Amino acid sequence: MTDAFRVAIEELAEQHNKQLAAILETYGRLHELESTVRSSDGMISIVVGPNGRVRSIDLNPRVYQKLSPSELSDAITTLIAQAAGEVAERTKELIGPLIPDDLPLEEVFGADVSLAAFLPQPVEAVE
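Above: the chain sequence. Below: its structure as tokens.
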């Protein structure tokens, strides 16, 4: 292998590894995403993480006196949807620059999809 070819391969491998590191960093940040929303009266607080997973629901004990069970259920469901929507928007902001324009985000980051399945392995230096 000529020196020029070896240098070109090493430069490509370095560029590839930098891009892969950026993708993995972004993927790590995705797992840290969360949104906290509260009802207008502050009696209900919901925390939602990546993929719309509910991390916590906090209810002020007085909410049981203020809302009927069906009203409370509706309020919780609405807040969960709001928080999940916020996390989804932040997810799109983070990964949008990394995804080709013609590839729908939902196909890559739908429920139970792992980024690891789409990534190549790091390139080893040529000896």
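The helical segments are 3-32, 63-66, 69-95, 105-108.
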